[in-house]
């Protein structure tokens, strides 16, 4: 019992000790940052782990222009805060956002991650973004469109028995997901409003309309329910402007209602309604621990009732849904084929005094029938993510180690009574995608990944490397490939990455050598993936 007490008390004591360090962080300059997965977004996330910025839950994030407060004069950071990005807290402003060019190259087959509108097919690809952001009184807005192009060079695809545009339809899941294996047979162009929004913030309540990417959960490389793996979608939202003090701690909430678009490769594609609620809570007694819940639905747009816009409030157990949905045509109580749920629980625990972070997410792709089934089979339709980060300070330099594992595959006997729901797919055109790209983890349906990375931050930028293993469409392997004595679709990648400051310009690049065994269950194949991002602040630095 004493050992158990120590295991339970030590994290709490460390967290309480870290709160003293957090309180010592006097608010300093405020920066206007934009987009996700940029050098400054990456640095500020790690600075939060190290206690070098005022603490933040960091689990409900948006990609549009937003303010980030630093500690003191900002010298806690390895990089000098750009003068052009500084704003006065609460002051009105009109600012040009950086002109940002993102490029990618794949030598043999498509490979992309959290690249928003960009689809990184074989050959060269590029995306251009830029615009303006403004604040006036309680109102703020940004116009930040994106324009993308992909050479989309030829590579071998999986025959699916269709012709014309239909031959690019996903070969494993057909019309249950708008996730084409290739975007046509010619160069691919796309544009979107990107990270644009219009919002008002009154008494710590923010509301408005947006096309921004959203990121739910604590993941760094992947997020199970909402990420930047595909383009953002138009949505209305309401929620807290900042964490609200509820005496027993602090809480954030976000509710949204949106409309998804389908690609031309989806036969008879519709425009599903997507809704959701995300809540996080930071206990008063453990100020560096954040726990949260995300509950999201896609629904057939036609014939919606008023209550369908608030599906996140319905009971969690399917047997209790009779009062919500009634009995369907086959006599099942509460089973509605016109909607699909994707929910998750998550946590993030920071230890700033030792510059360590632990985080995780556990998700379900299906309603549970009853509490008894949940107890018997908690792993049914589950997905999970777990990760950690550790930083060491060596003079003006930071050394960072990151590890993250995500798993969306489930192995159960073929022909099992309950079946095996696959993440992001659903009949009735309710798949978890927008314009043919994923909303959740970029590893895709029944995918998994393990990532290790080391980076060194210094005054001149950042340099590091990573190794990553990815396995895809694992359910298809067990259903079809394994009985035919085939092998898993598995990929190993090793890469280097760097951020360079060249005067007012930020340049980041990534180069990886990849080898994919049984790529799409066709053949073994290697790939060289190159990525570059150039960000030019139009107002200078």
Notes on the protein architecture:
The chain has 541 residues and is mainly beta. The chain has one domain (2-536): Porin (Beta Barrel), CATH 2.40.160. It is 10% helix and 42% strand. The protein is built from five helices and 30 strands. It has helices at residues 2-23, 39-50, 322-325, 371-376, 474-481; strands spanning 27-33, 60-62, 66-71, 86-87, 93-96, 99-106, 123-129, 132-136, 139-143, 146-150, 188-192, 197-202, 205-210, 214-216, 235-240, 244-245, 249-259, 273-283, 289-299, 339-351, 356-364, 382-394, 397-407, 433-434, 437-438, 448-458, 461-471, 490-502, 505-519, 523-536. It has a 23-stranded antiparallel sheet that branches. Strands 3-1-4 form a three-stranded antiparallel sheet, covered by helices on one side. Strand 22 and strand 23 (397-407) form a beta hairpin. The N and C termini lie far apart (58 Å). The model is unreliable at 1-22 (pLDDT under 50).
List keywords for this structure.
541 residues, mainly beta, Porin, 23-stranded antiparallel beta sheet, 3-stranded antiparallel beta sheet, globular
**Helix share bin:** under 10%
User: Structural class, please?
Assistant: mainly beta
First-residue to last-residue Cα separation:
58 Å
Shape: globular
Strand content: 35-45%
Radius of gyration over all CA atoms, rounded:
23 Å
Q: What CATH architecture do you see?
A: Beta Barrel
Biggest beta sheet summary: 23 strands, antiparallel
Q: Oligomeric status of the shown chains? A: single chain
Overall mean pLDDT score?
Answer: 89
The helix count comes to 5
Looking at the structure, the CATH topology is Porin
CATH class bucket = Mainly Beta
């Amino acid at each position: 019992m004493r050992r158990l007490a120590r295991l339970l008390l030590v994290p709490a004591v460390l967290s309480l000790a870290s709160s003293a360090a957090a309180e010592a962080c006097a608010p300093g300059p405020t920066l206007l940052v934009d987009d996700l997965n940029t050098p400054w977004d990456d640095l500020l996330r790690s600075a939060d782990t190290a206690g070098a910025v005022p603490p933040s839950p960091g689990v409900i994030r948006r990609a549009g222009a937003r303010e980030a407060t630093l500690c003191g004069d900002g010298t806690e950071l390895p990089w000098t805060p750009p003068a052009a990005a500084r704003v006065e807290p609460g002051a009105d402003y009109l600012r040009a956002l950086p002109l940002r060019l993102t490029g990618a190259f794949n030598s043999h087959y498509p490979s992309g991650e959290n690249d928003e509108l960009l689809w990184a097919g074989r050959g060269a690809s590029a995306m251009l973004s830029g615009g303006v952001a403004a604040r006036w009184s309680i109102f703020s807005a940004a116009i930040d469109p994106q324009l993308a192009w992909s050479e989309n060079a030829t590579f071998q695809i999986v025959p699916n028995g269709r012709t014309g545009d239909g031959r690019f339809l996903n070969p494993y899941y057909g019309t249950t997901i708008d996730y084409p294996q290739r975007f046509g047979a010619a160069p691919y162009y796309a544009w979107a409003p990107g990270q644009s929004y219009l919002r008002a913030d009154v008494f710590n309540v923010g509301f408005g309309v947006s096309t921004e990417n959203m990121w739910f959960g604590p993941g760094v490389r992947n997020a199970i329910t909402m990420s930047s793996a595909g383009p953002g979608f138009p949505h209305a939202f309401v929620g807290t402007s900042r964490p609200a003090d509820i005496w027993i701690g602090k809480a954030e909430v976000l509710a949204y209602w949106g409309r998804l678009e389908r690609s031309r490769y989806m036969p008879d594609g519709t425009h599903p309604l997507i809704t959701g609620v995300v809540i996080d809570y930071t206990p008063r007694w453990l100020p560096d621990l954040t726990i949260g819940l995300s509950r999201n639905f896609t629904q057939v747009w036609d014939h919606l009732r008023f209550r369908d816009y608030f599906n996140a409030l319905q009971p969690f157990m399917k047997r209790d849904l009779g009062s919500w949905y009634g009995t369907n045509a086959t006599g099942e109580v509460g089973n509605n084929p016109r909607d699909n749920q994707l929910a998750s629980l998550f946590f993030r625990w920071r230890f700033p005094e030792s510059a360590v972070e632990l985080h995780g997410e556990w998700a379900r792709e299906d309603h549970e029938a009853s509490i008894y089934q949940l107890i018997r089979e908690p792993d049914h339709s589950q997905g999970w993510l777990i990760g950690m980060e550790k930083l060491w300070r060596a003079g003006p330099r930071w050394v960072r180690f990151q590890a993250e594992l995500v798993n969306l595959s489930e192995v159960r006997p073929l022909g099992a009574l309950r079946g095996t729901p696959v993440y992001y797919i659903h009949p009735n055109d309710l798949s978890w995608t927008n314009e043919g790209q994923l909303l959740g983890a970029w590893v895709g349906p029944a995918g998994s990944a393990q990532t290790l990375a080391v980076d060194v931050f210094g005054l001149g930028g950042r340099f590091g490397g990573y190794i990553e293993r990815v396995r895809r469409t694992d359910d298809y392997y067990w259903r079809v490939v394994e009985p035919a004595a085939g092998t898993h679709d598995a990929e190993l990648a090793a890469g280097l990455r760097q951020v360079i400051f060249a005067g007012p310009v930020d340049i980041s690049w990534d180069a990886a050598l990849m080898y994919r065994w049984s790529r799409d269950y066709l053949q073994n194949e290697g790939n060289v993936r190159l990525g570059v991002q150039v960000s030019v602040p139009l107002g200078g630095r």
